[in-house]
Specification:
Elements (H helix, E strand, L loop, with lengths): L3 E5 L6 H15 L8 E7 L2 E8 L1 E3 L4 E2 L6 E2 L5 H13 L26 H6 L7 H8 L9 H9 L16 H15 L3 H10 L8 E2 L14 E3 L5 E3 L13 E3 L1 H9 L8 H8 L18 E5 L2 E10 L2 E8 L4 E7 L7 H11 L20 H4 L4 E5 L2 E11 L2 E5 L5 E3 L1 E4 L2 E3 L7 E4 L6 E4 L4 E6 L14 E5 L4 E8 L2 E6 L2 E10 L2 E4 L2 E8 L2 E9 L2 E8 L2
Antiparallel strand pairs: 1-3, 2-3, 2-14, 4-5, 6-10, 7-10, 8-9, 11-12, 12-13, 13-14, 15-16, 15-23, 16-17, 17-18, 19-20, 20-21, 21-22, 22-23, 24-25, 24-31, 25-26, 26-27, 27-28, 28-29, 29-30, 30-31
Helix pairs in contact: 1-10, 2-6, 2-7, 2-9, 4-5, 5-6
Length: 542
């Protein structure tokens, strides 16, 4: 039997607009009616103007999702953590310009640089992320985890990724540190403080931060993923019962109450809203898109304040269009729903220019380019600062395509001279400059600058790189062997990575890079590079 529960109000949406939005949402989420699924809600002008639920909150017991289903919202939680810090500042218990060591004396000072609370909030601290370190150590996220374990991982790092304010790098660890600061400044855990100062005053009766892994969650959804053989399995990291970077559990109905606080701030007053929207600024003067637990961007001429979340089998999104007093929330307990393209398909339908036409694509008009006009955009490129990320562009059937470092091949759509976009993800663009035609890649968060490079012929033998390497900071060893022209990485006897040679002494796979360092002409260590890790050192021990 199809599990589908619908509730909606047409008071603030025209019949035509409602039909259009429902059609778009059905197109994106209708396939999940017989599986774990999602709850979708649209808030407009102070009302929940539309909501619809798909699929099952619990597959084993055949329990459908409703608007009262409680989901783990992952990193959407970060805005609540930021709110706790801002409220403590209003109470005079901390100041966001304080050095973090004022509340966290365990944290080292690197190179005499001052990391401030504000840097953690804006993801510009340069500190390493405990989640990434755990992943490289092979520590299961199902293990019991505490604030103390996270602080120990963060504090034992011997070096940062970069200097504070040098660049933006999303960091779960920074928000874990903020949660510990809340405890030390207030005398309460972040869950207790958020309940007292935010959830209870706003009437968010079904919202809490999970700090007890054995807690019974009334109306709670179970997280799921699909295995390679097609079967479902639960993916619900309840033992990760700490606040800060995640663990807020809530409903689409409760999030409406939080959304309204951005228009009529009953909690925190205007001062809280001002702090929320202060974006990080780098030493070079560039303003980052990240503010107080929120991304602040522009999409098709509209300001967008948003955050997404992904943890275990849960994926979520909370997008606010302030000039339209409209918000979109999607909460899901199934990894398969987690496509940002789904969110933007609905967003397109919410924009005024889409009122008369159902949007099935990005809406960007493309135009034809002849093959000879495309030739100048072909070549081999690498990302600045991340040379293990290489990609090539080429022409096939009079279409410009790119093979990315993920080995995914994408056909690009030309939209103006020198600018192309992803066919399904309208915000992902490739802007080729006029000098050497090396593209800047506009993506979901920030942009990647690139440069042209020459092809590299991989070595026939990789013997020089083989051996056992150990990292004190990760507290784990990797054994490197070779299979053909790939470097095989083993941890505790299990093969975990297969790395291609990118250039001399540099190997990579997707976002991961191993950059070898030589002593007396021989590789003696490598620096691990990833999306949230820089220069994590492993040294050859045998």
């Amino acid at each position: 039997m199809k599990k589908l529960i619908i509730s909606f109000s047409l008071a603030l949406l025209s019949l035509q607009g409602f039909s259009q939005i429902e059609a778009i949402i059905d197109e994106q989420y209708g396939q999940f009616s017989e599986t774990p699924g999602a709850a979708i809600a649209i808030y407009k002008d102070g009302e929940i103007s539309f909501s619809k639920s798909y699929g099952m909150a619990n597959v084993a017991h055949d329990i459908p999702i409703t608007t009262k289903t409680v989901f783990d919202v992952g990193s959407i939680s970060k805005q609540f953590t930021a709110a706790c810090i801002f409220l403590l500042e209003q109470q005079g218990k901390l100041f966001i310009e304080d050095p973090i060591q004022k509340l966290l004396p365990e944290m080292p000072v690197y190179n005499g640089d001052t990391v401030r609370i504000r840097h953690l909030i804006n993801h510009i601290s340069g500190l390493r992320d405990y989640v990434e370190i755990m992943a490289y150590a092979g520590t299961p996220f199902n293990n019991q985890f505490t604030e103390e374990i996270g602080l120990d991982i963060m504090s034992r790092q011997l070096a940062p990724n970069f200097k504070p304010e040098e660049q933006f790098m999303y960091n779960n660890g920074g928000y874990l540190l903020l949660a510990i600061m809340v405890r030390r400044a207030s005398g309460m855990s972040i869950g207790e403080f958020a309940a007292s100062e935010i959830f209870e005053p706003l009437g968010m009766e079904n919202t809490f931060i999970l700090e007890n892994p054995n807690r019974i969650i009334k109306n709670g959804a179970t997280g799921y993923t699909r295995k390679r053989d097609g079967t479902l399995e639960e993916l619900h990291y309840k033992n990760f019962a700490i606040g800060g970077d995640g663990q807020v559990n809530t409903t689409v109905e409760d999030l409406f109450k939080w959304d309204q606080n951005f228009y009529d701030p009953k909690v925190g007053r205007q001062q809280l809203l001002d702090r929320f929207h202060e974006q990080g600024v780098l030493t070079n003067g560039d303003t980052m898109v990240y503010a107080g637990g929120l991304f602040i961007e522009e999409y098709k001429g509209h300001r967008v304040v948003q955050h997404t979340g992904a943890w275990g089998g849960f994926v979520s999104a909370f997008y606010r269009l302030p000039d339209l007093q409209t918000s979109l929330v999607t909460l899901s307990n199934y990894r398969a729903t987690g496509s940002v393209a789904r969110i933007y398909a609905i967003m397109d339908g919410l924009l005024p220019e889409a009122a008369s036409t159902q949007v099935k694509s990005s809406g960007t008009k493309s135009y034809k380019l002849q093959r000879k006009s495309l030739l100048k955009y072909t070549g081999l490129f690498e990302v600045d600062g991340e040379p293990h990320k290489r990609f090539r562009s080429f022409i096939e059937n009079d279409t410009l395509k790119v093979e990315l470092w993920s080995k995914q091949t994408v056909s690009l759509i030309p939209i103006t001279e020198g600018q192309f976009q992803h066919p399904q993800i309208s915000f992902m663009k490739f802007d080729f400059n006029q000098t050497d035609q090396a593209p800047t890649i506009q993506q979901f968060v920030g942009e990647l600058k690139t440069q042209r490079v020459s092809a590299y012929m991989p070595l026939e033998k990789l013997d020089a790189y083989l051996g056992h390497y150990y990292s004190e900071e990760v507290q784990v060893g990797y054994t490197l062997s070779a299979k053909g022209d790939q470097l095989v990485v083993e941890r505790n006897g299990k093969e975990i990575y297969f790395l291609d040679q990118i250039s001399a002494d540099l190997f990579g796979q997707n976002n991961l890079g191993f950059e070898f360092q030589r002593v007396d002409g021989k590789p003696k260590s490598f620096l691990l590079q990833d999306r949230r890790i820089r220069n994590l050192k492993f040294e050859l021990v045998k």
